[in-house]
Amino acid sequence: MTKRIIVVGAGFAGVMSALAAKRLINMTLEQNSERAEDIEVAVIAPEAQLVVRPRLYEEDAASMCAPLDGLFQLTGVRFVQGSVETIDVETQRVTSVDQTGRRSSLSYDRLVLAAGSDVVLPTAVAGLSEHSFAVDQLHSAVRLEEHLKKLPSVPATPGRNTVVVCGGGFTGLELAAELPGRLAKIAGLESDSTRVIVVERADVIGPDLSACMRPFVGQTLERLGVEVKLGTAVAGIDAGGVTTSTGERIETLTPIWTAGVAAAPLTRQIPGDKDASGRLRVDTHLRCPLAKAVFAAGDTACARTDENDEGAGSQHQYSRMSCQHALPMGRYAGHNAAADLLGLPTLRYSQVMLGTILDLGLDGAIFAAGDGDEAVVALAGAEAKPLKRWINETLIYPPRADDLAGALASGDPVNRTTVPAGLGC
Fold first, then answer.
1. Mind listing the UniProt keywords for this protein, alphabetically (predicted)?
2. 134-188: pLDDT as tens digits
């Protein structure tokens, strides 16, 4: 009787989960184990493509995706096109709907929830959903790019020439640093009259960045001509501009919302504790404590990244909603789902690589090694740009679809990425 591992989602964590599960199943088969002969690995997602979300702030957003059909065919992963609507942990069945509206149901023996996250649009901000842009998903990033290219056809006004980035977190800062260069390339848009403004409710720029990075980031934004308004929230957005919590009115046709994300709503269908972002609190093997057949990875999982078993929970370090964590979490989750089904020992999730790299547009990038207050700036400016490009253009992309051994090896949970020589690390 065929057993099945279902992976929900084809993002960074989902792809790695599928490859890790297939890797262990194939390894077990090579040892002549009958236990692995009839285990299917299936990925359910709207499209057989990986959207490279960390690059959606860049130019040419439509190209920021990688096809997965060939990779799935090569590795024997079954792809099911559809959006998952329900996960029934009692009957262990998943219901999805495809693009035609047809519903289908699949049973699972183990499930990896890797459905990602979505930008949060607070209802308290009037006009937000109607009048703002975003770079959270492929379609929204493409919509923004099309809008920017059309700006020269609009009568020249302060609102036409002003872009307001709502949120000075990681995505907001990368976008704000990128925009001066992008706006300067748009024919008919006078670069000397354009303004880029970041509105951040915290009292510091990049509140989630390590303290060692903020001074350099602030100085870079100033050099790029990006204005920053700290301690200020967005109160409302309309067709002509943004109103802040201080009562200031900023005329703009381009308000871009980047302030906050939450785990995919499917996490609500899995019993157990969630964090403030809706992520499932998983154990050290990425299993959901109240749904033993379910593992979670990527932006749907809140997992410990340290190995300290003592002390209060607040002293522990936890995964972040980033591909830096999603990739290894996917490897561990997929491996453990397969190992659990095969009766093999599962592995404790370990986050070996910790660091933060921020793209700063024409001014380069900044890289800090380590985590939290212990992080130190290792590279900055032009020296950090090659490392950022390698990460964005090579490291986070799925493996080639013509190399089976390499594709399966990429799912190794103890996979250690080596930075190529010459990138400064």
1. FAD, Flavoprotein, Oxidoreductase
2. 999 999 999 999 999 999 999 999 999 999 999 999 999 999 999 999 999 998 8
Q: What angle separates helix 12-30 from helix 323-342, to the nearest 10 degrees? A: 30
Residues contacting 172, CB < 8 A, separation 6+: 165, 166, 198, 200, 256, 258, 259
Q: What mean pLDDT value characterizes the chain?
A: 93
d(CA 111, CA 18): 11
Residue in the block written with tokens 């006004």 = 157
Tokens of 333: 């989750």
Structure token pair of residue 149: 């290219």
Q: Given CATH 3.50.50.60, say whether it is the number of domain 3-118+262-353.
A: yes
Q: Going by CATH, does the domain composed of 128-259 fall within 3.50.50.60?
A: yes
CA distances from 416 to 23, 172, 282, 304, 393 (A): 16, 30, 23, 19, 18
pLDDT tens digits, 242-296 = 999 999 999 999 999 999 899 999 999 999 999 999 999 999 999 999 999 999 9
Residue 17 region by backbone torsions, left for phi larger than 0, else alpha for psi between -120 and 50, else beta: alpha
Length of the chain: 425
* Fold: same for 3-118+262-353 and 128-259: yes
User: pLDDT tens digits, residue range 352-408?
Assistant: 777 899 999 999 999 999 877 778 999 999 999 999 999 999 999 999 999 999 999
User: Structural domain boundaries of the chain?
Assistant: 3-118+262-353, 128-259
AA letter at 383: E
